[in-house]
Amino acid sequence: MIGPALVTKDVIPDPQTLNIWTKVNGVMMQNDTTANMLFGVKQLVSFFSMGITLLPGDIIFTGTPSGVQLGKANPVWLDDGDVVEVGLDQLGTCTNTITHISANQSNFNPLGVFDL
């Protein structure tokens, strides 16, 4: 899911000045600013443009702000039924509910192997 909206630079002229946050079940888990990105938006666009042609509407996913659980002494992993909210200033919030499915219910096939 992408959203809640895609906007142009006339709506957000400087993408390096936005607060970004994540809540799980109403508890703040991540809260940072895009100013702390390892690579800024302009730098990322410039880098990718060296190898591919970026077209209007193309999306570059950049990762997550500080606060990830991996590497923490007592990580809190997402569980079935958890509600995850991700917000970005001037843009809005996306809310998703985690739903676990068993491996035999999934159509996901990471190796591309099919039963014949």
Could you tell me how far the N terminus lies from the C terminus, measured between alpha carbons in angstroms?
Answer: 32 Å
Mean pLDDT level: 85
Largest sheet: 4 strands, antiparallel
Number of alpha- plus pi-helical segments? 1
Find the structural class using helix and strand composition: mainly beta
- Radius of gyration over all CA atoms, rounded: 17 Å
- H-E string: EEHEE
Low-confidence stretches: none
SSE map:
Blueprint: E1 19-24, E2 27-33, H1 41-49, E3 83-88, E4 92-97
Please tell me about this protein's structure:
The protein is mainly beta and 116 residues long. Helices cover 8% and strands 22% of the residues. It has one helix spanning 41-49; strands spanning 19-24, 27-33, 83-88, 92-97. The two termini are 32 Å apart. The mean pLDDT is 85. Pfam families: FAA_hydrolase (PF01557). Belongs to the FAH family. This is Fumarylacetoacetase-like C-terminal domain-containing protein. Residues 2-98 form the Fumarylacetoacetase-like C-terminal domain.
Task: Summarize the structure in short.
This protein is 8% helix and 22% strand. The chain is built from 1 helix and 4 strands; from the N terminus they run ββαββ.
Structural key phrases:
4-stranded antiparallel beta sheet, 116 residues, mainly beta
